[in-house]
């Protein structure tokens, strides 16, 4: 992921949550000198607009609403440009959960930034929020930004959730790239959440259980990091007790980290909708931004200075 040569995509619906995500994305774009693509997904009815085109009055009202939204999006983008940031307004028809990944893929974006509205509903339980659906289908890392108290600032320290899987490797390399590009002064904290024996037995049926034949201690975590990154990288390692979805946010606060970085595990859509993944639960619980890194082919045994 290279935010210097590829754009950053940020979604907006003009809500307070979207404004927080936009401000944060602008901060990242300014630091990395990347273009910011501000995307509005026009989907007022949830149905294709041509399905209601026979109703002249309704069609006329939708046309007027569409133009007002375009104007608001252009004004929003112009405000970003006035701060010396290269920004482009992108207006497309369709659900945001489909439009944002499509825009990112088309422009080879390095990052998608979305806001988290911070509410749940029955529909949310079964369908997932827009941010979660974007995370599941995005071609690049997705930064989910909750409501942030106080002044926005660039991250100084990143917490990487580690379970010794391939997804953990992707998260580690994604965190390294971000740390270098944004100048994270305090580096990385690698955290493994160690669950009880029953949970480890259940995990033995998964990719994690098959690959994590490593004693759960700080030394094992550091050896794993050294094997993946080489000896030149400085990282802090910690093994904590508890379920990852609660242990990682707690460790983030204790270690004074600014983001949680997680790799996306392969999983079925049905399991994801009904029971939720660790990533989905952390997206709901974390009080700070969460960077979800999809499989991108992390290099093997690459040394880092």
Record keyword descriptors for this entry.
44% helix, Rossmann fold, ten-stranded mixed beta sheet, 12 helices, 305 residues, 10 strands, alpha/beta, elongated, 2 domains
Task: Explain what the structure shows.
It is a single chain. The chain folds into two domains: 8-145, Rossmann fold (3-Layer(aba) Sandwich); 158-293, Rossmann fold, CATH 3.40.50. Strands 3-2-1-4-5-10-9-6-7-8 form a ten-stranded mixed beta sheet, sandwiched between helices. The two termini are 18 Å apart. It contains twelve helices and ten strands. Helix 3 runs parallel beside helix 5 (130-137) and helix 10 (244-254) packs across helix 12. The chain has 305 residues and is of the alpha/beta class.
